[in-house]
Each structure stands twice: as structure tokens, then as C-alpha cells.
Amino acid sequence: MSRAATLSQRLPRPTIKMKHLNWSKVNRHTISNSVWQEVQQDLSVSPIANINYQQVEQLFCQKSRAPPTPRPSRAQSASEVSLLDPKKSLNVNIFLKQFKISHAEVADLIRQCRSAEIGAERLRGFLRILPEDSEVGMIKEYQGDKAKLGDAEKFYVELLRVEGYQVRLEGMIQMEELYPAAEKLKPQITSLLTTADKILTSDSLKEFFAYILTLGNFINMGSYAGDAIGFRLPTISKLWETRANTPGMTLLHYIVETVDEKELEILAFLDNLGDLSSPARLSVEGLSEEVGTLNSDLTELTKKLHDAPKDIQERFSEFTKKAAGVTHDLQVSLQELERSKIKLAQYFCEDESKFRLEDCVSIFHTLSCKVQTARKDNESRRKREERKKRMEEEHRRQAAEREATSGKKRGKGPPLSNPQEDSGGCVIDRLLADIRKGDFKLRKKSHAPTMSASN
Question: Looking at the record, which segments are called Disordered (predicted)?
């Protein structure tokens, strides 16, 4: 019998059923050169003597509660043996509720590697509830009635009967996740490669840069920024940050207006690049990390399979071969992406160590969005100006009509002389002419009747 068992036998046995101290036991084979080795040696020489076991028994015994109407389920739960930490036991039980089958059938799904029936999400969940080494030791060392164990403990009993259960779970997870991940990553990498190639081969883009360089040198003439032979890629954002004197107009608004009016082709490269909203959200570093994770996980699984039971090797050998080819293709695509990044950095005279392909794509995506906005703004401004012009013409027309109408009304009376030819006495002449015709009438003021007249 081991020393730990001998020490336990030297302790008095409780006279009644006690509560449990839910601790995680240290594996007895790993205590070499540890504090627990020294503790065991000290206890074997001088056991602890100052413990009042009777008091401990009174304080930590299980109190028997006799409910007035006991239920069978409560009586059963009172006799259950719990070996796991309550929180761990609860988590295991909650997870197992997803399966409407017995613990033995769940364990058999793992044994048969039926990943499609379990699903990737639940396979990941299994990894979170797997027993730790100390818990495995407790389950294996339990010699009591296994029927009295709690649900979580019963599941662990079934799980431990599955040889290499952790390798099986990790292999099934990769079977369910690697191919979908590769199918998502491949088009993302391809979209960045295609965009980089279009940028490098676009004649319209070179014309656009030449136009901006000419326009910028004109604006900057005579200043420290003049006489430039080129500009860095982030300079493109200055096109919509440089404001014109016209309210709401920027340098980009002017360029777009000129391109549309003169039907220039310097912005045609944006149509050729297409919708960059998806590539602009990608990160080369993030893609590299995802591919690296797939490759490292597969390498780790391959190493574990070398020491795994033969049936596990047979189940996953074909998968690992195909998966190795998939991850290799992804790594080759990433190498192509790195070469495209260097080409673009050299093409735009940027620092290769600091240049980021996703930043380049994002700049052209933003430019495309800003050009569309500028076109809408220009169209709105053109419509406002046309509306303002029509209103001014309408006001002039209405003024002319009012002038013509008032002229006709004046024509019914005596003809009026030209105001420029009227002298100071023209008013008197018109009054005399009216008196001769008898058309002039003097208006007399009516006086209120006096008091004498009324009498």
C-alpha cells in the first residue's frame, strides 16, 4: 500500500457522513522535489496531533433533512457522489443538455469520429469541458458504485473509455473547420492579388497621377512645395482636403467636373478596379496569422497522430495529406502577396518596410467613394445654379411685363411727355390743359355747420 494510503488509514474515521472539500489533487507521480514530497515525509514522521476531529465532525457533517413529503428525485440526489468541482460539474451538465442521447452514445460519437453529427461548434465546446489530469485521476481512482455518481462524473467515466479522445476531438475539429477556413481565405487573398495587379498595369492611373502632378505643381509654383517630380501615395487624400474659394467645392470637385465636361479618361482606372469595399477591409497580417494557425494546428495534429492508436491514424491519415496540400497552396499565395506588396512599394516609391498593401487598397477605395460623392455634389450644384438662373430670368420677365402693363394704363389719359424732357413747369402745363378741357375740378373742403345755422 502506498505511503499516502497508509497516512489516510492512520486518521480516525467520521462517525457520520461528511461534506466534501472540493480540491484538485496533485498527481502522486509528480511530487518529486516539490513541497508535497517534503510534507509527506514530515507527516510520516510526525502526524498532525492538534486537530479536534470531533469538533470538525460536528461543524462539517452533512445535516440530514427530512422533508414532509420527500420526492424520489431528492432522495436520489442526496445519495449522489460528486467528485468534481461544483462549477465544473455545472458547466459539463449544461453542455451535455445539447445532446438528447445517453452519455455512452455521446462518447461513441467521439469514438467513431462522427464530426458531421457533432458539428464544429459543439466539438469546440468539448475541448472546454474535458477533464483535467487531476479530475481524470479522481475518476479512475473511484472504487465506489458508479451508478451513484453525478451526471458529469458519469459522462467522464464513459469518455475515459474512449482511447485517445482528445486527439480524436482535435482531429474532428480540423476536419470541420480547415476546409471552410481555406475556402474563405483563398478568395480574399486572390482579391488582393488581383487588385494589386490592376493597379500595377493601369495606364489610366498613370495619366491620373500625371494630371495631379501637373495641377499640383501649378498650384505650388513659387513655393517650397513646387517643382515636384512626384508625390507619395497618401497625398491623394489632399485632393478632397484642399478647399476652393467656391463654397462646398474642393480640388477633387474641380478635377471631377473637368473630367466629366471634357470627357477625360484619367479616372477610368477606378471603374477597372471595381468595388474595393471588401478588399479594403482585409489585413495581410490577419490573413497570414490565420494561414499560420491552420498550418501549425495541422502540424501539431500530425505529430500527435504518430503516437496515437492505429485506428485514429487510419481515420485521419487521408485528411492530413489533403489538408497539407491546402495549407501549402495558401502559403504560396501569401508569398505571391508579399511579392506584390514589394512591387507596389517600389512602384510608388514607398518604404518597403513600412508599406502596407491594405493601406494602398484603402486609399484607392476612399478615392473611388470621394469621386462618386463629388459627382453628386457637382450635379446638385449645377442644378442649383440652373434653378437660380431660371428664377432670375423669370424675375426679369415679370418686371418687363409689369412695366408694359403700367405703360398701357398711362396711355388712356393724356400722353405723358418723356420724363427726360420734362422741365419744372410741365406739371403746371398739364393742369392748365385740363382746365381748358373742363376736366379739372377743384375739391372744396366741407366745413362743419355752425351753431347759428342750425338754429
Answer: 374-428
Q: Can you list the pairs that 122-130 forms with residues at least 24 positions away whose Cβ atoms lie under 8 Å?
A: 122/98, 123/169, 123/172, 123/173, 123/176, 124/173, 125/95, 125/98, 126/95, 126/169, 127/166, 127/169, 127/170, 127/173, 128/91, 128/95, 129/88, 129/91, 129/92, 129/95, 130/159, 130/165, 130/166, 130/169
Domain check: are 12 and 107 in the same one? Answer: no
Q: With both helix axes pointing from N to C terminus, report the angle between 165-200 and 310-347 in degrees, rounded to the nearest 10.
A: 20
Domain of residue 32: give its range: 3-60
pTM over 0.70: no
Which CATH number does the domain housing residue 129 bear? 1.20.58.630
The model's pLDDT over 435-455, given as tens digits with 9 standing for 90+, comes to 666 655 555 555 544 444 444
Residue 8's nearest CA partner among 28, 22, 35 is 28
31: buried, middle or exposed (CB in 10 Å: 19+, 13-18, 0-12)?
Answer: middle
